Amino acid sequence: DVQDAEALLVRSVTQVNEQLIQETKLKFVGSATIGTDHLDIPALETHNITWSNAAGCNAQAVAEYVITALLYLQPNLIEKNEKFTLGIIGLGNVGSRLAYMAKLLGWNVIGHDPFLNREQIQQVELEELLKTADAISTHVPLTKTGNHPTFHLINADALAQMKPEAILINSARGPVLEEAALIADIEKTKRQVVLDVFEHEPEISEQLLNLIHLVTPHIAGYSLEGKARGTQMIYDAFCKTFNFTADKKFETQLPVCEQYFQDQDLKQALKQHLAQIYDIARDDANLRACLKEGKVDQKAFDYLRKTYPLRREWAAHGGPKA
Q: Cα(171)–Cα(252) distance, rounded to whole angstroms?
C-alpha cells in the first residue's frame, strides 16, 4: 500500500519503520497522535522523509479530565481553594495546562519537572511534592533511560512518601505507575486512585479494577476539539511539505453545543453541570462491564475506545481554556 505513496497518514497502531519506508516514494509521514513511539525517526530522517505528529492537541481535554475526576471523587474540593494542593509531575503541554485550570479554581499548585522551568508554577523536588500534595497527577512520557527515567516512577517508595489520603491520578502512560506496588498500597491505605492507563494494558485484572475508585479506557484526551486540533496540525504540516495552500480550519466546522458557563462563574457552572459536560461515571461503568473471566476482555476494551462518543471541551460550552 505504501510502495507508490508520497504521503502516509497513520495513528499509533502502525509501526513506521525502516522495513515499511525503504524503497518507497514517501516524502511525508503524519501521525495524528501525541506520542512518537511508533515512528522510527532516525530512519525517516535518513530517507529525508518529513514527519509530523500532533503533540499537545489533546492537552486541554486531559487537563479537564483530571479536574473532572477530582471533583467526581470529592465534590467538596471545589470550595477548598488554597487549602487543597494539587501536585503535577511533568509540566509539558498537559501539565502546564492543568496547572492553569487548577488555579482558576483557586487551588494551590506545585509541580515537578527536571527538564522544564515554568515561571508561573511553583516547582519543587519530587520528594517534597510526594509528601505535601493532596492529589498527584502524572503527565510524563514513558522513558527507561537517561538521568530521569519515568518507568515505575511511582513505585513502592514513592507511594510510601505520599499522604495515605492523597488522591493519585495516572492519565499519562501505564508503566509510569508500578501496578504491584499500587495494589499493595491501596490494600494498606485505601487510597483513592484514578487510572486512565494501565501498566499491562489492555490486560487489566479484576483485582485491580476492584481496588481503583475510578477507571476509564485510555480516553482522557478524547475530545472533539482535540481531534480537530490534531487534524489541523497534520494538515498544516502536510500542506507545508507539498507547498499547498492551507486554507481549512477544522475547529470552525464543529457543531455548536449547549452553553453551560454563560452568566455564572466557573465554580457555580461546574457544580450544576459537570456531569452533563462529561459523565465520567459512565466511562467507569462501561469499562467495568468489560470484565470477563477475571480480567477485562481485550476486544471489548478496544471497542470502547474505537466507538467512544467524543466529549466537548469546556470552551465549547462557553467556559475557559488555557
A: 28
